[in-house]
Specification:
WAP; flat; coiled coil; 367 residues; 2 domains
Amino acid sequence: MLEEKIEDVKRCDAFPGQSERTESGKWVGVAQTLHTLRNVVNTFCMRVENLVCLSKPSLCEWRDQRKFEDDIEVMVIRNSIRGFLEDFEINSWKQGPQLSGSQYTNQLAKINQLSSLRQELDIISRTLSSPEMGQFPLNGSDESGEQCTNGKRKDHFLRKAFSSDISQFIKEANGKNQESKTDLSETMESASLKHMTKDEIVSFFKSEITRMKRNHESQVQEITEEYFRLRREFLKESGPLSSLRKDKEFEAFRKKIPELMVKLDDVLFKNEKLSVLYGNNEIICNLKNRIDTLLSENQQMKGLLTSKSKEVKHLSSQLSSAADKISQHFVTEANLLKRIRKLKCDMQDMSLKLRSEKMWISVFSRN
């Protein structure tokens, strides 16, 4: 509208032939429009200021309300989590096995033993599967089977020869020992010992014992050397065959060890679950014991409170009785004081009476 008024004024300026009344009327309309526009702007500014002033407290109220809602949500979540924990403890208490502390420690010791056994089996499996143990074909052709059979036969023959050599050598050593024993017995039974003195007999037996000890040590050394010689020969002749036999035996162990490890893993997994339940059970038992101790302490405190209240009542009764006795003592004391005063008055009266009598007696005696 203001733009239209300004355009009209421009047109009037462009056509100066129009009347002055029309021009003055146009300018009055422009002034009124500007005044109206100023009023609209002022009103808009006032409304904006009012909105800003109203938005500040509303924003503070919104923040406070939001904080209050967050606090309520946190409290609700905390209470719900606490309820879940309490339900879990109650269910674990109902469903879990009731074990004492000693049984729980024994169960943990068994679990530790099983885990150590599993580790040992793992180490043995790695040792057996290492390349140092030797890898030989076990499921080969018929030729390998015949070689294994021949190796077993040769191994058996070598073992038999080795054992026969060792037994023969031991028999020879035993025969030498038997000969030395017979010589000693013959010497002891000879008549020459009968003519010896005590010291000569002792020295003779000491020399014989030393000689027998030397013979025994030499025989032991010979047996040991012979054993190691035969063992070296046996190992030279049966080295590869014994390794093949050992590999076959170790293969059976290799097949059994993974199965045992799997079984132990299952047992340990179940025991881990049980240990978690036992741990929860132990925590609940500790909490229950603590609650029981608190209840017992509460009962003890109640008992002490009742005993103290009884003592206070007894002392108050004693105090009241003592107050009564004190009041009675005061009364008796007052009565005694009255009697004492009365007696004093009576004594004064008696003394006056005696004086008067003495005076009258002295007067009559003069007359």
